[in-house]
Amino acid sequence: MSLLQAILMGIIQGLTEFLPVSSSGHLAIFKILFGVDTDTGLLFDVLLHIGTLAAICIVYYKDVLKMIVEGIGIIRDCFINLIRFIGNKTGKTDEPYLRIVNSSYRKLVVLIIVSTIPTGIIGVVGKDVVEMASEILLIPGICLILTAVLLFIADHTRDGEKLPKSVTYTNAFGVGIAQGIATLPGLSRSGTTITACLLSGFNRNFAVKYSFLMSIPAILGALVLELKDCTAVALSGAEIAYYVVGMIIAAVVGYVCIKTMLIVVRRKKFTGFAIYCLIVGVISIGGYIYMA
């Protein structure tokens, strides 16, 4: 992989991760059409996602910090309840149990954990399928058309009112399934999850925030899996530098795009993205037929 290819893929990742047009689909199409070989399977894709992960953490740094604090608080209170349970059962104490989910941010942490469970299961089970699909131009094309359909649905879905306190764990699990399925190249993760949130009655602004925040554990999980499989891969100093450059560019471009996306989504402007995905999907399918 050349430096130019790394830069272009970083730009593609940063532009498409937060716009509902599927970063994985565009990267897969780019690799197929230009014969890009990263030699490490999904590792470079994951590193690009780490760049966009940094963008999410910067934009939502207050929420991320608060969630970390509350997450630690949840673990602490669970440990306290465990000690009290043992004491109460043995008759040594008679203390009331602490309420674990006692704030909106704690509820948000638990909701994201619930969403991450089906995403993780689908990601692990379907990993080989995703890698295989990324090498066939037809699959991203079909999935981009499906993304267009989802965006049309999102554009015509009535705004909900659900915030963390009123969102159910069933809602969170369903959105997690949507995120897991969206690992297929061509299915926009943000477009799929935001649509799932809106159909579940989420407040539109919260749907956008939830979609981005729930991607954090999913990206970290994917990174762990890839690093485990890539320990024996030998990379030259230049290749490592190219990977890092692509990751940094993805972070910078992603930061700009997430700020823009927040405005676009709130104003219900999905139609343009839907038409774009439809066109690119049709072109991809046409390219597959032509190359077959």
From TrEMBL:
Give the EC number(s) under which this enzyme is classified: 3.6.1.27
* Localization (cell): Cell membrane
Gene Ontology CC annotations of this record: plasma membrane
The topology of this chain with respect to the membrane is: Multi-pass membrane protein
Membrane-crossing residue ranges in chain numbering: 6-30, 42-61, 108-126, 132-154, 210-228, 240-258, 270-291
For this UniProt record, give its keywords in alphabetical order, as a comma-separated list: Antibiotic resistance, Cell membrane, Cell shape, Cell wall biogenesis/degradation, Hydrolase, Membrane, Peptidoglycan synthesis, Transmembrane, Transmembrane helix
Catalyzed reaction equations: di-trans,octa-cis-undecaprenyl diphosphate + H2O = di-trans,octa-cis-undecaprenyl phosphate + phosphate + H(+)
Phosphoprotein among the record's keywords? no
A GO MF label: undecaprenyl-diphosphatase activity
Q: Which GO terms describe its biological process?
A: cell wall organization; peptidoglycan biosynthetic process; regulation of cell shape; response to antibiotic
- InterPro entries, per the entry: UppP (IPR003824)
Q: Which Pfam families match?
A: BacA
Q: What does this protein do?
A: Catalyzes the dephosphorylation of undecaprenyl diphosphate (UPP). Confers resistance to bacitracin.
Similarity remark: Belongs to the UppP family.
Q: Could you share any additional remarks the record makes about this protein?
A: Bacitracin is thought to be involved in the inhibition of peptidoglycan synthesis by sequestering undecaprenyl diphosphate, thereby reducing the pool of lipid carrier available.
Which HAMAP family did the record assign? Answer: Undec_diphosphatase
- Put simply, this protein is called Undecaprenyl-diphosphatase
Q: Which organism is it from?
A: Roseburia intestinalis L1-82
